[in-house]
C-alpha cells in the first residue's frame, strides 16, 4: 500500500515521444472489450459482506458479517482494498469516485451489460459508504486491525482477527476521508442519475452533509491519536487534507451546479494549495485530477477565476511529453510505461492514462490544444499516450506479459492476495487459521483461485517483473489501480485507434 508522496525523475530522451506515439498509433489487436469486462469483474473478488446469488467469482464466500456490531452499527459490505482483509475508508472512497467518474465520462461507450456491472460495482461501495456516515457528526473510517491482519495469511471467510472499528467524531477532523467520501457520493449521484434517480438523490444529499463535516472540522484523520496506529503507516494522510476539500467541492459543483461550490473552489484555491503538487493523482493526492475536473468548468464557461486550475492541468499534461520544455517530467521505463518510484507503479499508469483521455475530450470539445513550450500537443497525442499505457499493461511490453490477471494466455500466477492464494472455502471448507496459511504464502505454486481482472502493482523502472507473491510492491492488486482503468478501457473499446 505505497504512498504517492514521491519525487519526479528525469525523462527518457526527447526522441522517445516519437517512439511512444508510433507504438500507440499502430493498429491494435488487443481485446479491449474483454479487458473491460474483466476489469469490472475484479471488484466482485474484493467484496466484503453477504454475497448475492449472482456473484460471478464463485470461489469467494460471505465474510465480515459482524462488521460494526461491536459499535452497535451495521458496517457490513464494501471492499477489501488489496490483498488483505481490512476495509480502509480513504482508498475505498477514492476507488468509488474513480469508478463513478469512469461512468460519468465514458459510460455511454460501455456495452449495456458492462454499464450495469459498473453501476453494481459502484453501488457495492456507496451502500457501504452511506453506512459510514449514517450517524450525525461521525464518520467510520476503517474496519479491521491492519497490524493483526497483516500478521496472518488467511481467507476473508476465515478471518478471526479483531474487526476493530475506527471512527472520527466531531470536532475531531477527518477532512481527507470525509472530503473524498463527499466526492464519491457526488460523482456516484451523477452515475445513477438516469437509471435510479431516487438513489442518486440520496447520494447527493449525503454528499452535501459529509462535505459540511469535512469543511467544518478541518484536519487530517490520521492526526487523531485514537486511530493513528490503525490507519498509519498504511493509509495515512501524507500529502495533507486540503486537496480533498477542493476535490469534494469540485464534484459537488459538477453534480449540483450550485454557485456556492463554484465560489468555494474560486475563493479557497490559493489558501488550500490548489497549485501545489500538481503532478500527482491517487488515493492520497488529488491535485492533477482536481485540475482536470475543474478545467471542464473553465473551458465550458470560460470562468476566468478558474484559469489557474486550467494552467495547472496544462502543466501536468506537458510533463508527460518527454521533449516538451517542462521543468520536470514524468519518467518512462525503457519499454514505455509511466514510472514513479515507490512500488505499485500501475496505480500511476492507470490514473494518468485516465486523466489523459478525459482532458483530451475536454480539449476536443472546445477545439483546443496545449502549448508545451516549443511543442504543440493536441487531443490525439494525449489519447495515443493513454493508449500506449493501456497496451503496455495488457501485454505489449518487453516481457510480453499481461499485468491483468486472467487476460491473455500469459499473466501473473502468484499474486499477493490472500483469498486468491489459499484454497477456496468451496473446495476446502475446513477452517484455515492465521498462521496455517503461511504454507500457501510461501509456496511456489500458482494461486488456486484466479482473481480475474486484477491489475497487479506491475514492473519496475527496468520493465522487469518476477511472478512472486512475496514481492507485494509488484504482485499485489488494489481497487484503486483498477478503478480508473475501467474508464480507459471503456474509451478504447469504442476507439481502439484514437485520433
Automatic annotation (TrEMBL):
Check the UniProt entry and state the signal peptide residues, or none: 1-27
Give the residues annotated as active site.
416, 467, 476
Q: Which GO terms describe its molecular function?
A: cellulase activity
Q: Which GO terms describe its biological process?
A: cellulose catabolic process
Q: Return the protein name.
A: Endoglucanase
As recorded in UniProt, its EC number(s) are 3.2.1.4
Which UniProt keyword terms apply here?
Carbohydrate metabolism, Cellulose degradation, Glycosidase, Hydrolase, Polysaccharide degradation, Signal
List the catalysed reactions: Endohydrolysis of (1->4)-beta-D-glucosidic linkages in cellulose, lichenin and cereal beta-D-glucans
Q: Domain Glycoside hydrolase family spans what residues?
A: 32-489
Name the species this protein comes from: Rhodamnia argentea
Q: What family is this?
A: Belongs to the glycosyl hydrolase 9 (cellulase E) family.
InterPro entries, alphabetized: 6-hairpin_glycosidase_sf (IPR008928), 6hp_glycosidase-like_sf (IPR012341), Glyco_hydro_9 (IPR001701), Glyco_hydro_9_Asp/Glu_AS (IPR033126), Glyco_hydro_9_His_AS (IPR018221)
Q: Does the keyword Thylakoid apply?
A: no
Identify the Gene3D superfamilies for this entry.
Answer: 1.50.10.10
- Lineage start: Eukaryota, Viridiplantae, Streptophyta, Embryophyta, Tracheophyta
